[in-house]
Amino acid sequence: MANWCSHIVERTGFFSSNYYCNASGEEKPLSYKYIDYYCKNNAYHCPTYEEYYGSSGGCFITTVTCGILKKDEDDIVMNNLRKFRDQILQKNDKYSNILKLYDSIGPIVSCNIMHDDNREEIANKIYSKLEGFTSLIENEKYDEATRSYVIMTLKLVKEYGLDNMYRNIRDNNFGYKDNEFDITKAGHGKKVVKTLD
């Protein structure tokens, strides 16, 4: 269960195991079909999570900035990071892995931040780092900005005990099959794949 949603609880008996979701604060029984579809690395899409916490689209930067700190969608940091994503990261294949990282592990980090009792304090620390990233971006230090982002993300992964989940996702091409990744649609906090269109 190391790679499953952090809200799943296993109750083991002599001959069987039962699973429950505690996203709402109380344990609700889960069917095996629901577990297979939603609970394996995928909590941020699940109806139970969205019922209680809403859908941020999985973007932990939006979760921190708008969801927790209540800043405007047109916040200067948000706008600078969007521009960086659209004009720099999505235009260069060397940034593919950082976009894959954001779209695969970002929603899981977002979920953990929202459930953290100290989420406002954590959000303020993250936002301060994001301000530093935008300063690097404004000075066209793109590689330094992406390195700083990766370090921050991996610290959050470690802090929330997601190391094994992260390694599993990373070692499996961040959940993408060959030729499935579309860099022009990446970096929105959710996995989008190429279509035949």
Structure write-up:
- This protein has helices at 32-39, 47-53, 60-68, 76-87, 96-114, 119-138, 142-159, 163-171; strands at 8-12, 17-21, 28-30.
- It contains eight helices and three strands, in the order βββαααααααα.
- The N and C termini lie far apart (37 Å).
- The mean pLDDT is 83.
- The chain has two domains: 1-55; 56-197, no CATH class.
- The chain is globular, with a radius of gyration of 17 Å.
- With 197 residues, it is mainly alpha-helical.
- α3 (60-68) runs parallel beside α5, α3 crosses α6 (119-138) and α6 runs antiparallel to α7.
- It has a three-stranded antiparallel beta sheet.
- The protein is 52% helix and 7% strand.
Cα shape: globular
> Order of strands across the biggest sheet?
1-2-3
Helix content: 40-55%
The biggest beta sheet, please?
3 strands, antiparallel
The count of domains is: 2
Distance between the termini: 37 Å
Brief descriptors of the model:
globular; 197 residues; single chain; 3-stranded antiparallel sheet; mainly alpha; 3 strands; 2 domains
